Each structure stands twice: as structure tokens, then as C-alpha cells.
Amino acid sequence: MPHFLLLFWKTDTNSEKFQIIQIQVNMEYTTLKQISRDKDNSKVKVRVLRMWDAINIANNHDLINLDMVLVDTEDLLVTCNAKIININNKYGWYYVACLICKTKVKQVRGVLWCERCKNEPKFAVPRIQVQAQDETSSTTFILFDKGAEKIIAKTAKELAEKQEEILKLDENILPKEIQKIIGNEYLFQLHLDEYNLKYGKENYMVSKILEMEILEIEEHQVIEAYLLQVACYMIQALVYTEITIRV
Length: 247
Known about the structure:
- This is Replication factor A C-terminal domain-containing protein.
- By secondary structure, the chain is of the alpha+beta class.
- The protein folds into two domains: about 5-75, no CATH class; about 75-240, CATH 2.40.50.140.
- It is about 15% helix and about 40% strand.
- The strands form three sheets. The protein has a five-stranded antiparallel sheet, with no helix packed on it.
- Strand 3 and strand 4 form a beta hairpin.
């Protein structure tokens, strides 16, 4: 996810106008999509992630300059090294989710119903909730069936069908294949969407489970983030703001 650092400076203390004196791109990140340096009038919508200001105490606390860290309004991807410490099986070890809003769907009169979208989703996918932890904190990761298959070798749907009779007796019984991942450490690529950034939802989607060997590749190819840092994104995003800048 591209990050921009914008520096605003008040050239005239009697004026309310600010001038952008520097646009610094963190080159460790890929550039914004569809934005080229050759385009003089390109615009991009960004989110204010962090902001600092400097004031003139001697002159009625007038604002002197303003620094911002901006991110593309597309969803944020971070990479986190964490250990799976438990499987959330309060409502069963897996659930079927709406493809649009990613929440659990219910069977209503024989059809699937999504309460958040208020409609009948045409497609739904099995998902697994795991409790993950690193040295700073713990939180909930949500695995799609494809992501889970990479570390379990079978999809949730396949495991459910295999143990159908057992699950009829107790849906909270964990298959042996699921139990084996508890205590294991993986490199997760987390997908932070609007529900995380704007509304502070702390269930994070796992977009990909990476091989541990990825740690050996060049530093600029991995964006590392601890769970505690992810929590900081949530706090900063409470003042969720979008602006448009000219590149």
C-alpha cells in the first residue's frame, strides 16, 4: 500500500493559505495504481492516516505547518508473523459467509440470507475464525477456505462433509486436521477493509498465508506489522478523512 508524506507550510503568517512544499513517497511501497509521473493533472483520493502540526505559540497559536501521512483509499494490506493459539468455534468451527460483506449468512426458509446486505447472496464461502497472537497482542483472523487449505491441506467444506455424522452430534468438535495448526506460526497477509479502518472492526481478513521463506527476500518486498501496530491503525482511523490531491 503506497504511503505519501505531505508537508504543508504557511508562507505568509497573515494568510490562511498553505503551500505544499514537499510530496515524499515511501519507495518501499508500490506506487499508486493508474498514477504516472508523466501525468500533470492526475488526481487520487487518499485517506489521512496520521497528522502532525506545528503552531506559533508567540502568535496566538497560529498554525505554521502541517504534516500528513496519506494512504490510497483502496484497502490496506499488511504482513504479520503470528501464532495460531485457538480456533473460535463458539458457533461451530467454521461458518458460511457472504462474499460481499464477509459476514455469516443464515438459512431462512430454505435460502441463504445476509442480514447486513439485506438480500439473498448468490454465492457464499466457508470460513474459519482463528485466534492469533504475537509478542504484542492477540486478535481474530478470518481464513477463507482457500487460505485455510494451504495450511490444513483440505478445505473447510471437505472436512465438514468428511465428518458430517460427527458434526451432527456436536458441531464444536474440531477435526484433527484443524487441531494440528494450533500452536503453529505463520506469516499472514492481512486485508484491512473499510470495516477495519473506518469502524474499528477487529476481525481481520487473511488474504494470503505466505511461506516462512519469504522472510529471506529483500526487505522492501515485505511490509511487516505487529498486531499492536494494526490496533494503532484503528485508533488513527477514528478520524477517517478522505481528501483529493493533485499529482
